[in-house]
């Protein structure tokens, strides 16, 4: 069995080193197998179904940021380490056009782009979020850490604990993410910067 895992890990490494791309699911699977944990163990620890973890590991769905935080914590790593490429860049410049062209849709209905994925061992994880009215599934999540939101364009309601805030272009919100929170787009499209620590 150990030989199979080692061979599987080497195969994953060779495949991904050849094209220099690691998908988030690949990284999660590699960490889980290296730690000799089953899909079910990881799912139970994250409060998710085994089938959802399998879909994430096979890159068939992009998890929400809160889900990534839970998976990262369960695997003893950070969300930044799951998102980053194998680089040690000192400064990363990303144009708005580049960020918008690489948006990934999550299972919650909004799209995200992780900024500075090439920066090794970031202390924070900035994301571009784009949420469309009628497409975001109603949800409230909680996870360890703190979060800062800045509205770039549009309008949304943000529920944090029992309070609800209406945020418009130029507004910001900072909160402890242990409180349940979720968004509801008010305008047809809302674009915002979300930074997790």
Task: Outline the structure in words.
The protein has 197 residues and is α+β, with helices and mostly antiparallel strands. It has two domains: 2-61, 434 Repressor (Amino-terminal Domain) (Orthogonal Bundle); 96-196, Jelly Rolls (Sandwich). Helix content is 34%, strand content 26%. The chain is built from seven helices and nine strands. The strands form two sheets. A six-stranded antiparallel beta sheet has the order 1-2-3-9-4-7. Strands 6-5-8 form a three-stranded antiparallel beta sheet, with no helix packed on it. Strand 5 (155-160) and strand 6 (163-168) form a beta hairpin. Helix 3 packs across helix 4 (50-57).
Indicate the CATH topology of the largest domain. Answer: Jelly Rolls
Distance between the termini: 38 Å
Strand order of the largest sheet: 1-2-3-9-4-7
Architecture (CATH level 2) name of the largest domain: Sandwich
What is the arithmetic mean of pLDDT? 84
Number of helices: 7
Uncertain stretches of 5 or more adjacent residues: 1-21
The Rg value, from CA coordinates, equals 17 Å
- Give the overall silhouette: globular
Name given to the CATH homologous superfamily of the largest domain: Jelly Rolls
* Helix-strand pattern: HHHHHHHEEEEEEEEE
Task: Please outline the helices and strands.
Blueprint: H1 2-19, H2 24-34, H3 39-46, H4 50-57, H5 65-74, H6 79-83, H7 96-101, E1 104-105, E2 111-114, E3 125-132, E4 146-153, E5 155-160, E6 163-168, E7 172-176, E8 181-185, E9 189-196
Antiparallel strand pairs: 1-2, 2-3, 3-9, 4-7, 4-9, 5-6, 5-8
């Amino acid at each position: 069995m150990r030989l199979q895992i080692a061979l599987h890990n080497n195969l994953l490494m060779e495949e991904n080193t050849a094209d220099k791309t690691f998908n988030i699911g690949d990284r999660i699977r590699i960490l889980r197998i290296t730690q000799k944990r089953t899909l079910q163990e990881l799912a139970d620890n994250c409060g998710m179904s085994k089938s959802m973890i399998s879909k994430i590991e096979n890159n068939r769905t992009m998890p929400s940021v809160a889900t990534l935080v839970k998976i990262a914590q369960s695997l003893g790593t950070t969300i930044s380490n799951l998102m980053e490429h194998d680089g040690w860049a000192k400064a990363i410049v990303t144009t708005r056009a580049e960020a918008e062209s690489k948006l990934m849709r999550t299972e919650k209905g909004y799209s995200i782009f992780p900024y500075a994925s090439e920066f090794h061992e970031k202390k924070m994880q900035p994301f571009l979020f784009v949420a469309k009215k009628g497409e975001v599934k109603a949800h409230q999540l909680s996870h360890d850490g703190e979060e800062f939101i800045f509205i770039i364009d549009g309008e949304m309601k943000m529920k944090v604990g029992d309070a609800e805030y209406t945020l418009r272009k130029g507004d910001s919100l900072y909160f402890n993410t242990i409180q349940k929170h979720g968004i509801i787009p008010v305008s047809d499209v809302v674009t915002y910067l979300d930074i997790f620590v």
